[in-house]
Amino acid sequence: MFLDGLVNTAALSSVAFFFSYIALPYLYHSMYPNLYYLVDDLFGVKLNGLKLINSFGFFVAIAFGASGYVLYLELKRKEALGEFTSKEEKIIVGAPASTADLITNFIFGYLFGYKIVGAFTIENALNNTQAFILSLEGNMLAGIVVGGLMVYVKWREKNKEKLAKPETRTFTVWPHDRVGEVVLQAALWGFLGAKIFHNLENIDELVKDPIGSLISFSGLTFYGGLILATIGVIVYIRKHNIRVIHFADAMAPTMIFAYAAGRIGCHISGDGDWGIVNLAPKPFEWLPDWAWSSTYAHNVLNEGVPINGCVGNYCNELPAAVFPTTLYEIIIMFALFAIMWSFRKKITQPGILTGIYLIFAGGERYFIEKIRVNNKYMSLPFQPTQAELISTFLIIIGIVFLIQSKRWFPKTIVKP
Predict the structure, then answer these.
(1) Could you tell me which residue, 214 or 232, shows the higher pLDDT?
(2) How far apart are CA 376 and CA 198, in angstroms?
(3) Neighbour tally for 121: CB within 10 Å
(4) What is the pLDDT of residues 59-96, one digit of tens each?
(5) How far, CA to CA in Å, does 375 sit from each of 150, 302, 364, 383?
(6) What does the DSSP 8-state code read for residue 301?
(7) Which of 55, 125, 249, 316 has its CA 20 to 30 A from that of 73?
(8) Partners of residue 173 on adjacent β-strands
(9) Which of 113-122, 198-207, 297-306 has the highest mean pLDDT?
(10) How far apart are CA 287 and CA 2, in angstroms?
(11) CA angle, 129 as apex, 126 and 130 as ends, to 5°?
(12) Angle (deg, nearest 10), helices 35-43 and 55-80
């Protein structure tokens, strides 16, 4: 048990160390809007198909997957402590593929073939992958072929398991068995919330181009995602009789890890989450130039001025160097994750870890806002940003949790 914990901690720490101190410093000088540019720069290999994979989305997907693993470890640990109970669920096995299954598979297969395969068969589609994916253009024949293939695969899979008479079987399901569904809920509601809050924060952009603002791949606000994802996940776990406060405590280190890992995608793609102009001299000689200021060359937003000698897409850089705030957030949040991960087992009072998370997350974001580019509410005292207001609220709620947890959440242990 001790060895497993040691191995898991070492593995997570190694991932954090690699991204923060090895991979990111190598990638400091240039942003990578999609994986084509990243692989080309790292390995000198040009794979046009990688232009379809947005760097931000790729690393956010990795962040969700890795965070799911962190949550899995915490739920297993808390189940062993008796903080969660299992639930019996009945599932029908041996039934043939339903019409709904076949239609769903055809739709997904058709879209994949129409767009993804179409990108390789339509001339110049890969020159502007975002415009192509959001357009109605595609390969209908490829869509039909791939859709038909997906229908056949689903039918064959169900046919292999088919019984003469379908049976209803009872399975024991623990909270850790639902991690995949929780991650999916968090991803869907989180993306929706991030998009809504970004557009509320940037009303001028929304009014100017409402359709473009709503469907573009950029423009996400973390706190919007956090709020809506929290509501969505709470509704889901309550539906399955999982105690919310114990689940929130398990999510505390998970959310810090997710934020740090997700910021890797922001930094590598140059999605606009940079800081204010920084023309001040470095405070320390040993500090690398890229850790003090950056022009975010080749950023995914094409913000700034043209880069001399660069031809094609993503050939802009900021006219003046700015604070690389995404890099700072990656390092700070991985450090906070390591701290919380190291002492989490010593805290047995429900609600305390949740309170610490709220203070950590709110405090980090509040202070980084001081050197970060963002819209301010000029009509309010001190002209705060949206993130500063929400951060302050999180810190206050976190302190309340630390003070009131013992009264609000008495310990209830169920023997596994």
Answers:
(1) 232
(2) 13
(3) 12
(4) 888 888 899 999 999 999 999 999 999 999 888 888 88
(5) 46, 20, 18, 9
(6) T
(7) 55
(8) 87
(9) 297-306
(10) 38
(11) 170
(12) 90
Look at residue 12 and tell me whether its pLDDT is greater than 60.
Answer: no
Distance CA 37, CA 225 (A): 28
Asked whether the beta carbons of 251 and 351 are under 8 A apart, the reply is no
Q: Output the CA–CA distances (angstroms, integers) from residue 272 to 188, 278, 300, 388, in the order listed.
A: 22, 15, 8, 18
Residue 201 scores a pLDDT above 90: no
What's the token pair of residue 343? Answer: 């002492």
Residue 123 has which token pair? Answer: 């001339």
- Indicate the pairing of strand 167-173 with strand 87-93: antiparallel
Q: Is 90 exposed, middle or buried (0-12, 13-18, 19+ CB in 10 A)?
A: exposed
Read off φ and ψ for residue 59, nearest 5 degrees.
Answer: -75, -30
CA distance 210 to 228: 21
The pLDDT value given to residue 129: 66
Structure tokens at 177: 């068995």
- Nearest to residue 161, comparing CAs of 100, 222, 95, 112? 95
3 state DSSP class of 209? coil
What gap in Å lies between CA 308 and CA 116, rounded to an integer?
Answer: 33
Q: How many residues does the chain have?
A: 416
Q: What is the pLDDT of residues 231-258, one digit of tens each?
A: 999 999 999 999 999 999 999 999 999 9
H or E element that contains 357: helix 352-368
Contact 277, 320 (CB under 8 A): yes
- Give me the torsion for CA of 159, 165, 168, 169, rounded to 10°: -70
* pLDDT over 50 (residue 264): yes
d(CA 78, CA 71): 11
Q: How far is CA 23 from CA 15, 268, 272, 312, in A?
A: 10, 10, 20, 26
Q: Minimal CA–CA distance to 252: which of 413, 74, 65? A: 74
